[in-house]
Amino acid sequence: MHIEGYIALFWDSLKRYYINPYCITLSLSELRHSASLANKVFIQRDYSEGTTCKFQTKFPSELESRIERTLFEDTVKTLNNYYAEAEKIGGQSYLEGCLACATAYLIFLCMETRYEKVLKKIAKYIQEQNEKIYAPRGLLITDPIERGMRVIEISIYEDRGSSGSSSGSSSVSGSTAR
Q: PANTHER family annotated for this entry (predicted)?
């Protein structure tokens, strides 16, 4: 098999783990179909401690009437802790690196890395938060991996029956690091 074949296999495995359009449950899809998108809020990355994957915990004003500040902050802090766990370098990371070099990275066709396992935990956590906390309030968090790990996107939905003057607008929470 040529390198293109291995790349195709690797890409298919990535899509299977991270780009699965059917992982959203029925209640979340009902939210998308029964309500109209009114606004989007973007929680920016926090680069105050370097380039580690960490998001700002500043509460966006657009969410004040939708969710309690503590629930939002707990969600972002938990995500930040998961990303810190994923980026932690330890013995397992070194072993994975050595195995990757020894097998010309073919080991990853049949083995998940620790980082991939944590990303799956994050996706599951976001799905649970959407189901239990955010969807009942007309909100939906998008996994940061779908936005290149640059922002946490929170979509704000309104019932189709109610009139929303802010339809189609978007706002940005926090400052953009340049």
A: GOLGI AUTOANTIGEN, GOLGIN SUBFAMILY A, 7, GOLGIN SUBFAMILY A MEMBER 7B
